[in-house]
Amino acid sequence: MVRELVLLLILLVALGVLSLSVIRMSPGMALRLGRRPEWRRMLGDVDYFQQAMGRLFAARGYLVQGQWVHQDPLDETPREVIFALERGGTRYAALCVRWIVPVTSDVIGRFEQSLPATRADIGLIATTSIFTEGALERARGCRMELYDREQLQKWIELAWPPASPAEPPSAPP
After folding, report:
1. CB 98 within 8 Å of CB 128
2. How deeply is 13 buried, as exposed, middle or buried, from its count of CB atoms within 10 A (0-12, 13-18, 19+)?
3. Residues of the chain with confidence (pLDDT) below 70
4. Helix (H) or strand (E) holding 3
């Protein structure tokens, strides 16, 4: 009987260690558990980027209706995720791009032309990069919102504030 209990205890400890190592190895699992998205991983992994952006949109009050990874035939790895969002009765089509190069006016123009097919009320482009002046100019007057890397990083800060340092112990009376 004692032998069986010891073996059971060893098995439970082994399962616990295995579970912790799987959680540590899986960035997506960390996001599902509520951890703050890591910028470096957002840039390097499209699945992580997709999960992080979905969490960011949800934290900002959007209901994520659908999401698709877009594979550009010219790119080796996918760099874009498209979201169908809704907030307050307004439908959004969101193009989220994990780029290091600036978003140009050509991208804004192509997205603007595709918006009627999405049946969205407003277009939204979020990038891990920046927008060129031409892109910002092209988007003026359109029903489109643009969010660059600084704004995305602010979204992360607002949704997952950094842990405050421990309060210093109070002085004795």
Report:
1. yes
2. exposed
3. 4-33, 71-79, 163-173
4. helix 2-25
